[in-house]
Specification:
By secondary structure, the protein is α/β, with parallel strands linked by helices. The chain has 2 domains: 10-48 and 300-429, Aspartate Aminotransferase, domain 1; 51-295, Type I PLP-dependent aspartate aminotransferase-like (Major domain) (Aspartate Aminotransferase, domain 2), CATH 3.40.640. Helix content is 43%, strand content 14%. The chain is built from 15 helices and 14 strands. The protein has helices at 16-29, 51-63, 77-89, 104-114, 130-140, 159-168, 190-203, 264-279, 285-295, 298-322, 347-352, 359-369, 377-389, 396-399, 416-429; strands at 35-36, 99-102, 121-126, 146-150, 156-157, 172-178, 206-210, 235-240, 253-258, 328-330, 338-343, 391-392, 394-395, 406-410. The protein has an 8-stranded mixed sheet with strand order 2-9-8-7-6-3-4-5, with helices on both faces. A hairpin with a 5-residue loop joins β4 (146-150) and β5 (156-157). The longest helix has 25 residues, at 298-322. It is globular and about 60 Å long. Bound molecules: pyridoxal-5'-phosphate. Residues 40, 104-106, 129, 178, 182, 210, 212, 240, 242, 248, 253 line the site of pyridoxal-5'-phosphate.
Length: 431
């Protein structure tokens, strides 16, 4: 090449949640049955999208050809008006023009960081959903700056540490929260959210809250949207259909802009997001067209409630089994559908002695984990677990930019016995 063509932040892009799949597929070819616990797709894990939702989608697809066309860049007016009216019912002011649709939140997250000034950094949680941490790091050309979620305090952040970091580092322009959290299942109490708002006010920061799991908080009363507390602070709230409906294949998510005009810089930044979206024309039309009919249906709330109860039950089941092991630690999640299992370092010796199901798998394992640094011992653990049992999980350190070693599994399994067998396989693997 004539000059360097690689983006200076390219080395920061990682998505281990899918990365481990290549290895698992290799093992599958040797005859090993894989239990896919790595990916947060309820549909792939066998959850049925209710018939009435499928009927709404089918009717729209049959009814007219309008959902086959492009939609306005910001999104269909009917979908934006529905969301704005819903926020208004909860006492939050959000005009439809301050909503921008994306092709899933993956698209939104990429644009939000890519169009930030490279010198403006966003401080995010550790552990974090990797699209945030790696795209933010790529945008800033260096590692993602984080505040630690402490498992000893129910994975809650130390807000004083957030404040200290902001005070010491003038490049921090924004704070990110993922609420409910992935991979931790943490739900931020109102008092913690208010402290983030106070810090943002004091240092003139903007806030981002990824609330894609907002309606999957096991006790509905636990969840408060940051949009309702923003109190004049420029704020982006991210929501979507992937996890809720569930419909990840719709590639439909949106960002709500709060207090857009409270700061001209923030307003100009939002305009750049809209322009960036315009160069792409628009987001997927069909899911927006059916959004009001699905989210506004009286059966939707019952559907969500059934799923919330299922995840709460799965979490209890998992905690009962895994927390009985002295080298595993699980904090009760309060929302979303994941379990972050913390590992004691000594567990690695135990894990390494387990071997693989057959010599071919052993060979593949040795080749793959060669070169993985020892401090990522949870990655060694996950690959070894996969080779010995077929259970595919994601290491916290490399998968979620986590300083706490462990792994993430899901609470999505539809079959009681399969879930129980998976938990017992993990427990026994740990010795
Ligand atoms: C916290 C969080 N945000 C965003 C996404 C991406 O969602 P989408 O399917 O809308 O791209 C995920 C997916 O797992 C997630 O866990």
């Amino acid at each position: 090449m004539r000059g360097t063509i690689v983006h200076p932040g390219a080395g920061e892009l990682h998505y281990e949640i899918r990365g481990i799949v290549d290895f698992a597929r290799e093992l599958e070819k040797t005859g090993l049955t894989i239990t896919w616990e790595n990916i947060g797709d309820p549909v792939a894990k066998g959850e049925q999208v209710p018939q009435w939702i499928r009927d709404v989608v089918a009717e729209e697809a049959k009814k007219s050809s309008s959902s086959y066309g492009y939609s306005p860049t910001n999104g269909l007016a009917s979908a934006r008006e529905f969301i704005a009216a819903d926020r208004s019912k909860q006492g939050t002011y959000l005009p439809p023009k301050d909503i921008l649709f994306f092709n899933g939140l993956g698209d939104a997250i990429n644009k939000v960081y890519t169009w930030l000034n490279p010198r403006a950094r966003v401080l995010g949680p550790d552990p974090a959903y990797p699209t945030h941490s790696s795209v933010e790091a790529a945008h800033g050309h260096s590692g993602h700056l984080t505040y630690r979620l402490d498992p000893k305090r129910d994975w809650q952040p130390d807000v004083d540490d957030v404040r200290r970091q902001v005070a010491e580092n003038p490049s921090i322009a924004g704070l990110l929260l993922v609420n409910p959290g992935n991979p931790t299942g943490t739900v931020y109490p109102k008092a913690v959210l208010e402290k983030f708002v106070d810090i943002a006010k004091e240092f003139k920061l903007f806030l981002i809250a990824d609330e894609i799991y907002a309606n999957l908080t096991y006790d509905k009363a636990d969840f408060v949207s940051l949009g309702a507390l923003a109190d004049g602070v420029p704020t982006l709230i991210m929501r979507g259909l992937s996890k809720e409906v569930p419909w990840p294949g719709s590639r439909c998510g949106w960002v709500e802009f709060y207090n857009r005009t409270s700061d001209p810089e923030f307003d100009a930044y939002i305009r750049s997001l809209e322009e960036a979206k315009m160069t792409e024309v628009c987001s997927t039309t069909l899911p927006q067209a059916v959004l009001p009919a699905i989210l506004g249906d009286r059966r939707y709330e019952q559907h969500l409630e059934r799923r919330r109860q299922k995840y709460a039950r799965r979490a209890t089941q998992a905690i009962e089994i895994l927390n009985a092991h002295p080298m595993l630690q699980v904090v009760q999640p309060k929302g979303a559908f994941y379990l972050a299992v913390i590992l004691d370092r000594q567990i690695l010796d135990q894990a390494m002695s387990k071997g693989a199901v057959n010599p071919e798998v052993r060979l593949l394992l040795n080749k793959t984990i060669l070169g993985v640094p020892n401090h990522n011992f949870d990655k060694h653990f996950c690959y070894q677990l996969l080779a010995a049992t077929g259970v595919c999980t994601v290491p916290l350190t490399t998968g979620f930019n986590s300083s706490t070693p462990g792994f993430r599994m899901t609470l999505l399994e539809s079959d009681d016995k399969t879930f129980n067998d998976t938990l017992h396989a993990i427990y026994q693997f740990c010795g």
